[in-house]
């Protein structure tokens, strides 16, 4: 039996471009599901689908 644990990797917050905002806890970096992929809804700009991080599968409230 194989378990697929999600792994995460850091990515630059797409909302603030690394400057720090509420979506990245002012770190400029967010943890996203590896391998990181730009959100196809907004192309990395940030939208409700990606939690305004610009990345697909951000770690956060859904864990
Ligand atoms: Zn940010
Ligand atoms: Zn998005």
Fold topology:
Elements lengths: L7 E5 L16 E5 L30
Antiparallel strand pairs: 1-2
The structure holds zinc ion (2 copies).
Question: Summarize this, please?
Answer:
Helix content is 0%, strand content 16%.
Radius of gyration: 12 Å
Largest beta sheet, briefly?
2 strands, antiparallel
Unreliable spans: none
Overall residue-averaged pLDDT value: 90
Helical proportion?
under 10%
Shape call: globular
Structure summary, number of beta strands:
2
The N- and C-terminal alpha carbons lie at a distance of 22 Å
Task: State the main characteristics.
63 residues, mainly beta, two-stranded antiparallel ribbon, 0% helix, globular, binds zinc ion
């Amino acid at each position: 039996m194989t378990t697929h644990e999600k792994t995460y990797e850091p990515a630059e917050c797409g909302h603030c471009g690394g400057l720090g905002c509420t979506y990245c806890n002012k770190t400029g970096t967010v943890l996203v599901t590896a391998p990181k992929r730009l959100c196809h809804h907004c192309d990395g700009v940030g939208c409700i689908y990606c939690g305004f991080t610009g990345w697909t599968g951000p770690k956060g409230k859904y864990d």
